[in-house]
Amino acid sequence: xxxxxxxxxxxxxxxxxxxxxGDRYQEMLRDKGFSAKHIANxxxxxxxxxxxxxxxxxxIPRITYSQLRDAPxxxxxxxxxxxxxxxxxxCATVAKESQDYxxxxxxHAEYLELPxxxxxxxxxxxxxxxxxxxxxxxxHLRTQDLSEIKGSDFRIHDDGKxxxxxxxxxxxxxxxxxxxxxxxxxxxxxRLWQRIRRRMxxxxxxxxxxxxxxxxxxxxxxxxxxxxxxLLEVALEKAGxxxxxxxxxxxxxxxxxxxxxxxxxxxxxxxxxxxxxxxxIRFAENGLTSKTMVEEVYLSHLDRFEFSAEAVxxxxxxxxxxxxxxxxxxTFT
Length: 333
Hints:
The protein is mostly helical. The protein has twelve helices and three strands, in the order ααααααβββαααααα. The protein starts with 18 loop residues before the first helix and ends in an 18-residue tail after the last helix.
């Protein structure tokens, strides 16, 4: 429960309830860690109940509130991030588990020939998981998007400057909510999608773990979620990376989204693309997050987690391992 019954305003005559009591209720929820969205839902429910009751008891006052403030965010330093070095080590480990097939331009027939079976730890699953990791890095997908995206949601188009941009259309979980586009601004994202699309049979297929059917992809503990969590834990162990950080926060798929944001933010800052709050809002909205989240979580970590602009510039002087294009049968040196 919320502990409403223990509050002083709960013991008042309902005819004496006023704005100050509405604010105390709001503050109580905020102090308990409720988000602004959840508090707003509580207020809507109360308003509806009061309106219904007023039909029989007109003397009941309407409850009013002052301006809503969001719940205080936890310490942003507690989030689990991969450093640049850790992230590349992690992705290299995943690629190794796929026997480097994940970094090859496989046809659909070649992809189907990869070892696959009822055991989750198989090469084809590792190929998909590697692509999942890089999609999180380059496109900052939300965890909820991973089980839903299909080939038809991806589109490469001209950026008007002689290059290409990959756009992914993701759907909101609420019924009839509008779809949201995510523009993946790096050439790496375009090349990654071209590689993924080549191994797919049809654009109607799911992009990740297409062998799992609809009813195996949507529940909280469905096979899709347990599979990606299992592969994440195996990869962390094989890479020798900690499963929790110093604050006890566990690594999860969202940690990849955090890391992708960090890398992209550092890259854009190094190229002078982030100059003011307007640029931050644009960056945040494209990633389906908020300016506050970018400021409090990502900007505050740039120096601590080795994502300086100089580090980004140095990394771009040599090819990223993801971009090494190999054919089946080629060997890595």
